[in-house]
Write a structure and sequence with these properties.
This protein is 39% helix and 15% strand. It has 14 helices and twelve strands. Helix 7 links the parallel strand 4 and strand 5. The mean pLDDT is 96. Bound molecules: ligand 4LM. Belongs to the trans-sulfuration enzymes family. L-methionine gamma-lyase subfamily.
Length: 399
């Protein structure tokens, strides 16, 4: 491993860290170990690896050298001790929760979560005797009041999908750890990536990702990851991944994410720059009721986002005057911009959370969890910002 790049800047480490080409015949890019299993030199060596007494690969459900390069690099970028890459964001989230919880435990989660995360907590974990309280994690006293002796996890996204509320990660982590060091603060960092925000440096215990999004960055894979301290990540690998979910990442996918990481900082800068311009423009349009974007000075989260994130990111949500019907009309008018869920791709994507990503909530739950029926979400892509704006403009003009 060539880890000299450790002291280098983020973009340099995103390209070099965790791989030494001299270990692989000089291959500039890390080889893809497309193998399910690994041959042992002897029965004794195999036994030692299984017993954890010797280093070395065993079977790709437990790890694979291509995956290891990605994990080493991602852990470094998030400033964690270790990372575990998995088959999807939901694979990473579920493996993490299954490992850390047992029946009778309690989770405090923010009131607005990606739809399948909400469904996992509400319909999955609750079925197995885990209690979940949803609170507004922007309200520190609400978080404090929700903690009990049974609480083991405090979980939130920041910024939140889809409403873009921003949580004070340092303040929440401090409050929770003052209450008990047995509670893990877990932050879903999908919207920011470590290029814009590093929750572990702010006091969080674990970070989870849908690597499907900005980390991969090209809309061509599904993957996830968890990053944190070595001991917990090893437990998640050996319990949540190996025995409970089996949500293993393929070597090819791990390779594609490594490729995505090389341009992560560049892409996040461009996504943020274009999204800020688009959000400012949207806020001036007479057809628009409200724009949610933490980079707008008018946002209630502007100051916190300035402190906690290096840039405001590429995601925008907004409501049109006329609500749901106008929102649908607007979306159907789009020409270049794709009507699609997911985010963080080169292509600008537009979706309707109430009927798509957050349709796992009932209409009553959506209302209680702050997801309005008329909300439209845009993942601002890497096209020229003038072309993105032109498409939005023509779609608005015929509403
Ligand atoms: C979407 N999101 O919003 P996988 N955490 C966050 C997410 O946004 C997602 C996941 C986890 C969307 C998918 C259709 C904050 C997903 C789950 O899809 O399992 O990699 O990640 O459009």
């Amino acid at each position: 491993m060539n880890n000299d790049a450790q002291k280098a800047a983020f973009s340099t480490r995103a390209i070099h860290y965790g791989y030494d080409s001299s270990s692989a015949n000089g291959s500039l890019t890390p080889p893809i170990y497309m193998t399910s299993t690994f041959a042992f030199d002897s029965v004794e060596q195999g036994g030692e690896r299984f017993a954890g007494e010797a280093e070395g690969p065993i079977y790709s459900r437990l790890g694979n050298p291509t995956q290891s390069v990605l994990e080493t690099r991602l852990a470094d970028l998030e400033e964690g001790e270790a990372a575990l890459a998995m088959a999807s964001g939901m694979g990473a989230i579920s493996a993490t929760f299954w490992t850390l919880l047992k029946a009778g435990d309690h989770v405090v989660a923010d009131k607005t979560l990606y739809g399948c995360t909400f469904a996992f907590l509400e319909h999955g974990l609750k079925k197995f005797g885990v209690d979940v309280s949803y609170v507004d994690c922007c309200d520190l006293s609400a978080v404090k009041n929700a903690l009990t002796d049974q609480t083991r996890i405090v979980y939130f996204e920041s910024p939140v999908n889809p409403t873009l509320r921003v949580m004070d990660i340092a303040a929440i982590s401090q409050l929770v750890h003052n209450y008990s060091n047995d509670i893990k603060v877990i932050v879903d960092n999908t919207y920011c990536t470590p290029a814009l925000q590093r929750p572990l440096t702010l006091g969080a215990d674990l970070v989870v990702h849908s690597a499907t999004k900005y980390l991969g960055g090209h809309g061509d894979l599904i993957a996830g990851a968890v990053v944190g301290d070595e001991e917990t990540v090893t437990r998640i690998r050996l319990e949540g991944l190996k025995d409970m979910t089996g949500a293993v990442i393929s070597p090819m996918t791990a390779f594609l994410i490594q490729r995505g990481l090389k341009t992560l900082e560049l892409r996040m800068e461009r996504h943020s720059q274009s999204a800020l311009a688009i959000a400012r423009w949207l806020a001036e349009q007479p057809e628009i009721e409200q724009v949610y974007y933490p980079g707008l000075e008018s946002s209630p989260f502007y100051q916190l986002a300035q402190q906690q994130m290096t840039l405001p990111g590429g995601m925008i949500a907004f409501e049109l005057k006329g609500g749901l019907e106008k929102g649908k009309q607007f979306m159907n008018n789009l020409k270049m911009i794709k009507r699609a869920v997911s985010l963080g791709d080169a292509e600008t994507l537009c979706q309707h959370p109430a009927s798509m990503t957050h349709s796992t909530y009932t209409p009553e739950e959506r209302m209680a969890h702050d997801i309005s029926e008329g909300l439209v979400r845009i993942s601002v892509g890497l096209e020229d910002v003038k072309d993105i704006q032109a498409d939005l403009s023509q779609a608005l003009s015929v509403c």
